[in-house]
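[retry 2/3] Surface lipoprotein: previous attempt timed out, resubmitting with same input.
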Amino acid sequence: MLGALLISGTLSGCSTSPTATDKNDPWESWNRDVHSFNKDFDDTILKPLAKGYKDITPNPVDESITNIFSNINDIGVTINDFLQLKFVQGGMDASRFLVNTTVGLVGAFDVAKMIDLPKHDEDFGQTLGFWGVPSGNYMVLPFLGASSPRDTVGLIGDALFNPLTYVSFFGGFAANAASAAATGVDVTDSRSDLMSSEKILNEASVDRYDFVKNSYKQRREYLIHDGNPPEENDDPLAGEALEGSATGPAANNSPNNLSNPPKPSTSAVQNPNAVIIIDNSTTMPKEAPPVPVIDNSKHLLELSAPEEENQRK
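[retry 2/3] Surface lipoprotein: success.
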């Protein structure tokens, strides 16, 4: 979990010269400085580690490691399902965790996917949004990347749902060392999985800070409303109120509902060969305009590489 959080700022990119402060981004000066710091940290430490990991790790082993940490994440997903009153989906995700933990050998193999138990994406930030908590201003956290006051509180909640947190605090020296090693592997594995995505980000944006910001906000709106975000409103305050009102019956809680995808921002990549990842089991059609998205539960930038890049991988 912690490893996934550390990836959020790694693909943020170098900021260009700051433009006039956006009234909807009052913390832009701080955000751009932290954005640049995260990029430097990635270039210096994370990317070299990820490249080395990718070079020496066979694809089946890499996939198994990714599946194990995804399986741990399903604990928090299940809890947030029930907190959002998604009882059917919660039952599916609980079953998914049990199947993969047992038959899938502690999650090394995604057996649940083979029996139609897809991976869902829920986090405590979405839960707060479901119950009407507004997101607040966009903010960039050191190491953790794109966020908001609501989603920062959500990170704390997600950490409390993660068993590795308690191993770190109460497990003694040996357990702490093992947990730290697991976190390091999670960070490196997650970063290596994003290597191909970085090419799209590099080619997509003139101002990478604005690109990541718009993508993040758009993705969070999409997730909180389960694929049916409210219509855009010219009044930014009204839009914020709509986001914070996604509660109870007012929110469409059908999992993986892609019938009303979010509208692409002006910085979206108009690449007909790009496929935008919505979750681990679903993709947008190639014919649809690609929409840059950020997965905040894992804090990963999810932009797919061109089709030929994926084939080489």
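[retry 2/3] Surface lipoprotein: Residues 2-312 form one domain.
[retry 2/3] clearing retry counter.
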